[in-house]
Design brief:
Blueprint: H1 14-34, E1 43-47, H2 53-61, E2 66-69, H3 72-85, E3 90-93, H4 102-108, E4 111-115, H5 118-131, E5 136-141, H6 157-166, E6 172-177, H7 186-199, E7 203-205, H8 212-217, E8 222-225, H9 227-230
Parallel strand pairs: 1-2, 1-8, 2-3, 3-4, 4-5, 5-6, 6-7
The structure holds pyridoxal-5'-phosphate.
Pyridoxal-5'-phosphate (PLP) binds at residues 47, 49, 70, 94-95, 178, 208-210, 224-228.
Length: 235
């Protein structure tokens, strides 16, 4: 299965963005059909972190309406004007969330994909109650049990999901994972699917530019694609 084209440049026009999007959607359809799930709908979260508002606007003009950002501050600087210009745009937080940014995140994002500890669950529950605004929440799962990576260990997922639901009254809409670098991702995607099924979780956010087709075949409902759409991130 092909990864991203290493020669991709940063998009310069909306039609370039549309072309890449079309190719990605086609590849996903083919991969799902090959896996025996021709009916499956996989949503593309365009990961726009580090890209300028001008670059992001091209992708909005190409029809993208689902975006992922990994920093609260950066998203709050770039997105308010774009969102006004393109209503019905959904913003997802896909990076770690510090408790002291939880109020901003609840106010700003439509989905928070990185709920990864009990303290954050409590702070989010308090903010949701205070603001009367409830982003959909995903739990991040550290499928590779990597010490430096955020996320709930697979063995703790059932208890943590129950704690979020029962103790904090938080409906959990999805699970998210980032497999370890340099390992085949398939076992991690399969594990995330198994944990989700067992806990009655509908959404699965997994797969990035290099492995989204495998993720789609293993049941991703949302793949997070940055460089495959926008090209390389500015450093
Ligand atoms: C940056 C990022 C992505 C997108 O990575 P690409 O390889 O550019 O597609 C996906 N998920 C998360 C959590 C990220 O931080």
């Amino acid at each position: 299965m092909a990864g991203p084209d290493a020669k991709l440049e940063v998009i310069q026009t909306a039609s370039e963005a549309a072309q890449r999007l079309k190719a990605i959607n086609l590849a996903i359809s083919e991969a799902c059909a090959e896996a025996g799930h021709p009916e499956r709908k996989v949503h593309i979260t365009a990961v726009s972190k580090k890209h300028s508002a001008a670059t992001i606007r091209l992708s909005l003009e190409a029809g993208l309406r689902l975006f992922g950002e990994n920093r609260v501050q950066e998203a709050m600087e770039k997105w308010p004007a774009l969102r006004e210009e393109f209503p019905h745009t959904e913003l997802r937080l896909i990076g770690p969330l510090q408790s002291n940014k939880a109020a901003d995140a609840v106010a700003f994002f439509d989905v928070i994909e990185t709920l990864d500890r009990a303290k954050l669950a409590r702070v989010l529950a308090d903010e949701i109650a205070a603001q009367g605004r409830a982003p959909r929440l995903y739990i991040q799962i550290n499928t590779g049990e990597e010490p430096q990576k955020s996320g709930i260990a697979p063995g703790d997922v059932d208890a943590f999901t129950a704690q979020c639901r029962d103790e904090y009254g938080l409906p959990i809409a999805g699970f998210m994972c980032i497999p370890p670098m340099g390992e085949p991702p398939a076992p991690h995607f399969a594990l995330l699917g198994k944990l989700a099924a067992r806990n009655g979780i509908p959404d699965l956010s997994m797969g990035m530019s290099g492995d989204f087709l495998i993720a789609a075949q293993l049941g991703a409902t949302h793949v997070r694609i940055g460089s495959g759409i926008f090209g390389p991130r500015p450093s």
